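hi! just following up on the protien thing from before. the input was this:
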Amino acid sequence: MDKLREPLAETDQCGLPVALQAMGERWSFMILRAAFNGVRHFEDFLDALGIARNILSNRLSRLVEAGILKREHCADDRRRIEYRLTDKGYDLLPAMLALRQWGEKWALGVPSDPVLCDARDGQPIGPVSILAHDGRILDGHELTWRNRVDVDAEEARRKASAVA
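and the predicted 3d structure came back as:
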């Protein structure tokens, strides 16, 4: 990468610390993984994850406070609560898949089973990638930092020339 880089001391201008604050640690990711797999009820999370009751309660509360999960009364039994992913929670799926694929590649050495597939054609999903504006897959050596004001000015020039 070029000489310009993120101002690493200015964490309030970076989305990563905010995301890490919302997700917390391992159990939050495991709860989110279970939610992506259709787990909805407190007792089901307990059974699926083998997590202590107090830790589960704490992490679910944090995820609800962060807007990643929402609490809803069950339609068939208003006394029971369901935890459901919000749109904000669903937006974490690519990050979760990227972490899973990284773990498969660098820790397990093999793909996990079952395999996540495209519902349309049944084929396995590809690796989560960094895509350029035109859809090209980029690696870390093809990235650079630019000041927002320069990027916005260039975009405005591009739009103006497209209209002319």
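The mean pLDDT is 90.
Residues 11-91 form a domain with the Arc Repressor Mutant, subunit A fold (CATH 1.10.10.10).
cheers
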